[in-house]
Amino acid sequence: MDLLDGSGLRFPADQVARMMVGTGARSGPLYRQLSDSLAELIDRGELPPSAVLPPERALATALTVSRTTVVAAYQALRESGRLERRQGSGTRVRADRGRETVSNSLLAGDHAASQFLDGPLATIDFATAALPSLDLVADVASSLTRDDYLRLTSSHHGYHLRGLTALRERIARWYSDGGVPTTPEEILITSGAQQALELVARGCLHPGDGVIVEQPTYRGALEAFSRTGSRLRPVRADEDGLDVRSLETLLRTGSPRLVYVQAAVHNPTGAVLSEDRRQRLARLVDQHEFVLVDDTSLAGTGFAEGPGTPALGSHERIVTIGSMSKLFWGGLRLGWIRAVPQVVSRLAQVRGITDLGSSLVAQEVAVRLLDHSSAASAERRSTLPGGLRTLTDLLATQLPDWTWQQPRGGASLWVRLPQGDATHLAQLALRYGVALLPGSVFSADGSTDNHTRLPFALPPATLHSGITRLAQAWQTYLERGAVDVTVTSTIT
Ligand SMILES: Cc1ncc(COP(=O)(O)O)c(C=O)c1O
């Protein structure tokens, strides 16, 4: 089978609408903006050769534009040789187009949005909730000397499937100091928490397995789990994190293979699992047979002072995932798995199929960075709440009907729209120069589309322009619904 051939692949209208976030031009006739966006997706191979595009009416509804706009855009793409229309089988990407790149469906996480593949756009990026790097990362990285690197390069051939021993020791010590005794044999270094999730999914799940996830949850986890053919079931969560009573109810009616939770700080809501719920959850692990995956990637970004408990405890069926990305910098591309040694060995084997280890240079930096984790948390505590205040003040004045869940950490606000749905709003917002993720991408069943996630770890001026544009988009959404809007010079 040709990996890049999209024969028979049907792209639903809502999916195409989401893929268009961050693509195309932001001015000119609307049909031209639409055809430019689709052309970009086709040329990059994200809409692969022979893929079937949604019917014009469906795409028009998903994008809140008129059908004639979509008809004109498809026509322009036929004229430029990208699309063809076949009697009875709708509109397809021509078989000889865009064969040089991979499909967007192969990308995961918050980083699937196409703007990660491009240079900076005129669009304000509210679709990502990454944290800026701390200067500490540059300070520590530049403090390493030639002798440090010589010691590293002369002592290793460079392939270290489980990770640098010094880093595994350092992370084990960090857990032990936090009250969860840990040995280096219980740590597997990964290329980010996203890879950790992928390994757990591939190592633990089989088609048909039940997986319970919070509603909402991290979209990269949803993608990793659903790709194994598992059946995802949502469970309620609120300001105190996972609703453990609802989980208990679900466990009475089924035996999931895996439960995925974010106990430390939650993406997208910023919730922190309460102490009482932590204890009840730990008891449930004892009473049932599921594997509990606790993704603590955002640990250290809580607003309250204090170390926080680093893991839910030691148990052969608890797998804890950690990351350097949120506390320090995503560009290090380092995360880890804490699990019993047998699970670590098994997941290391799974990892070896696709990857022979993470960069030892980055790991050498990480060993030293972890000595500064308290200072890093303090720095996050001194900056993140200010961004949150700026964002909520802006929302209160410019979008007073919007409500949100008060976060206790992290870099994003989980916002509820008073009416309508965020998939359509996101399309409209794009035309006002704001890239937004609809809430549906954070849920197992797509039912949180009356929400969106707004990032706040951004400069005040960016937040101001972004919310001003969003308020304009919202006004248009309320007034005009599914009517064409062309935005050119009104962007502030
Ligand atoms: C909850 C959660 N898990 C995992 C990841 C992936 O992190 P990493 O950069 O370590 O791959 C993210 C990133 O946004 C996240 O929010």
From TrEMBL:
Pfam hit, one: Aminotran_1_2
Gene3D superfamilies linked to this entry: Aspartate Aminotransferase, domain 1, Type I PLP-dependent aspartate aminotransferase-like (Major domain), Winged helix-like DNA-binding domain superfamily/Winged helix DNA-binding domain
Gene Ontology MF terms: DNA binding; DNA-binding transcription factor activity; pyridoxal phosphate binding
Domain called HTH gntR-type: residue spans: 28-96
Record keywords, A-Z: DNA-binding, Pyridoxal phosphate, Transcription, Transcription regulation
CDD domains cross-referenced by the UniProt entry: AAT_like, WHTH_GntR
Xref: InterPro entries: Aminotransferase_I/II_large, HTH_trans_reg/aminotransferase, PyrdxlP-dep_Trfase, PyrdxlP-dep_Trfase_major, PyrdxlP-dep_Trfase_small, Tscrpt_reg_HTH_GntR, WH-like_DNA-bd_sf, WH_DNA-bd_sf
Alphabetical list of PROSITE patterns matching this protein: HTH_GNTR
PANTHER family: HTH-TYPE TRANSCRIPTIONAL REGULATORY PROTEIN GABR
Family membership: In the C-terminal section; belongs to the class-I pyridoxal-phosphate-dependent aminotransferase family.
Protein name (Swiss-Prot/TrEMBL): DNA-binding transcriptional MocR family regulator
UniProt source species: Kribbella italica
Phylogenetic lineage: Bacteria, Bacillati, Actinomycetota, Actinomycetes, Propionibacteriales
